[in-house]
């Protein structure tokens, strides 16, 4: 029966108070993990997608704003530029892709011309594949669909990655003529270092910008790190508020238990032991609150995956909750709670025994 | 038989400042407590008897003078050693029992033990007539029972000295008699050295020696 087991008993003694104090930590941790988890999941999903990018290099119109920032269907490569690129001896396996918006039955739909069907999960066969939104409008396999006065037959449907938009995917060779043969981007393999070829492309072909796989990965990192930091910062405020309430409650606890602390010291516990037991008590609030918050966040994230997973792509819970986030958030909540307990614990340990024993 | 001195007060002063005025709670006390003795300290409120007990228990340090415990000068002890010393050498019994309400009877007794030995703690509780009440919490016990738990807690580390501050102050006369009987037994049968502070003449009558205090000194 050491003084440290008292810390556990004290938490249970004022259950409601302990639970409410923990709730502050739980809310902070949940908010932090959900928000950071979502951006982390997005990051790994985006990186995975670019990792699957065909070829070594991606070439786009330089006014488009780069591979990640361009709004779809707004900027295209000139046919002359495309010809120049095709003539470059450093490039081979050159594929044109096109993405554009077009009017369809009074709404805008998104046409994607692809040369790589491998990343698209299709019910049916490749050819002319429509998203769930269009499927809901009655376009099923075998239906006729007219895009820019061209009638085609739907060969398949897909559910993932459409973000609720009407999307039609077809071969680039079929989509290009619908966009006046203007392509959005070119992917190609390079002979030699992609970095060198990239510079050559940008120099030789006016109005183009090229990215290598590592460029894209870095762009994603830059973008998402900034986002994670910003979102994490906001969510941390919630955690901080929870932690401040620990300072408050521990001060109340210590004041309330003044006489008990006097007794502990009278029967031979050292100042350090008293300090340690109160720090442990507040660390437990943070630790338990952190675990509960993490569990709730995991449930929320999994729910989000189940509800919206088909809309945003194949994201797994594990990629939203990397180990660093779990360890960081539990460690952070516990560590901050220990800090929160420092002042109350120090006050308790410095209590004068005789005065503490006189306390009503 | 030549008994050793458990406690020696040598010209012990304890001076408080209150509103610019100096109060001599202890004014040069000289007192020797022999091993195996049973002493009560009586006197009106403010006579310094509680302060004497606090100084004896190393809960409070003298302003001047020395307190020797088993021949060792306690003024040389640091805060940490004082705590260790209290744990091993002194057992406290308080007027208001001061059991920890969140702990069971058994846990309260186990609390000060360096190596928790539930068997030993139970033996002390049995000795206090508390068999079968190990898992009761203090609020499930009567005042007399709580005070017996606190005596068990004070005894469990086999200290050289038991200090009791008004041990019967919150008890009816029947329970007061039981508690004093227990303390007397401990002293007579097991040779435990005990000092009590009390207002209660009936309690003091159980002890072998009564010390009267007035204005911070022994009369």
Q: In words, what does this structure look like?
A:
With 360 residues, chain A is of the alpha+beta class. Chain A has two domains: 186 residues, no CATH class; 158 residues, no CATH class. Helices cover 60% and strands 17% of the residues of chain A. Chain A is built from 13 helices and eleven strands. In chain A, the strands form two sheets. Chain A has a nine-stranded mixed beta sheet. A two-stranded antiparallel sheet of chain A has the order 6-7. In chain A, 38% of the residues are buried. About 2% of the residues of chain A have low confidence. Chain B is α/β, with parallel strands linked by helices and 219 residues long. Chain B has a single domain, classed as Rossmann fold (3-Layer(aba) Sandwich). Chain B contains seven helices and ten strands. In chain B, the strands form two sheets. A six-stranded mixed beta sheet of chain B has the order 6-7-8-3-9-10. Chain B has a four-stranded antiparallel beta sheet with strand order 2-1-4-5, with helices on one face. In chain B, α4 packs across α5 and α5 runs parallel beside α6. The radius of gyration of chain B is 17 Å and the shape is globular. Chain B starts with a strand and ends with a strand. Classes of the chains: A alpha+beta (360), B alpha/beta (219). Chains A and B meet through α1, α9, α10 and α13 of A and α2 of B.
